């Protein structure tokens, strides 16, 4: 199925110029084209259209994967532990099983997706955490690279985020809409 993601501005990354009233045409898990919404909609009139406020950019790379997912506990809302990640001595006091680490990582991944993150820098060591990251669609990178490391180019994975001012409104990984602001 073809989907056109469009916003006020598309910032493809790399050396490519930004596109006002731009769009990204997604076919399956790949980017089929990047151009103006008008051109892509005319060429693909049956494509589903997703309109986002603000801008579409390459997704973010979080350089703190182990700290955020393996050295922090993301509490379940049903627990009486608050809503912020728990670290340090407070984390040491918790009974952390593999299942609990996996559940925490899934909640942490949701926080990352809500920030426009599409990859984390590893290495990650806990199998339950690695599994949660892989199942989410996030990738684990081994090096931190400044700048647009995943430019929006035809033929590449359809992995990007949409931002309205500084708030992430959507995160797409390999063509799947994994976060949408409600």
Summarize the structure.
The protein has 182 residues and is α/β, with parallel strands linked by helices. The protein folds into 2 domains: 89 residues, Urease, subunit C, domain 1 (Roll); 81 residues, no CATH class.
Please tell me the CATH architecture of the largest domain by its name. Answer: Roll
Strand order of the largest sheet: 3-2-7-11-12-13
Number of domains: 2
What is the count of helical runs? 5
Global outline: elongated
Order of helices and strands: EEEEEHEEEHHHEHEEEE
Unreliable residue stretches? none
Distance between the termini: 24 Å
Task: Find the count of extended strands (DSSP E, 2+ residues).
Answer: 13
CATH-defined superfamily of the largest domain: Urease, subunit C, domain 1
CA radius of gyration is 18 Å
The major beta sheet can be summarized as:
6 strands, mixed
The helix fraction, in percent, is 10-25%
The CATH topology of the largest domain comes to Urease, subunit C, domain 1
Percent of residues in β-strands: 25-35%
Name of the top-level CATH class of the largest domain: Mainly Beta
């Amino acid at each position: 199925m073809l989907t056109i993601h469009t916003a006020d501005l598309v910032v493809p990354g790399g050396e490519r110029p930004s596109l006002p009233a731009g769009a990204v045409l997604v076919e399956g898990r790949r980017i089929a084209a990047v151009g103006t919404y008008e051109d892509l909609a005319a060429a693909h009139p049956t494509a589903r259209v997703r309109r986002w406020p603000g801008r579409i950019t390459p997704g973010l790379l979080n350089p703190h994967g182990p700290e955020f997912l393996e050295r922090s506990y993301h509490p379940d809302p049903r627990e009486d532990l608050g809503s912020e990640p728990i670290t340090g001595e407070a984390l040491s006091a918790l009974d952390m099983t593999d299942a609990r680490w996996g559940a925490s990582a899934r909640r942490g991944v949701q926080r990352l997706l809500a920030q426009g993150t599409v990859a984390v820098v590893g290495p990650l060591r806990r199998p339950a955490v690695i599994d949660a990251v892989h199942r989410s669609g996030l990738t684990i990178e081994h090096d931190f690279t400044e700048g647009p490391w995943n430019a929006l180019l035809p033929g590449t994975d359809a992995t990007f985020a949409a931002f309205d001012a500084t708030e992430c409104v959507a995160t797409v990984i390999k063509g799947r809409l994994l976060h949408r602001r409600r």
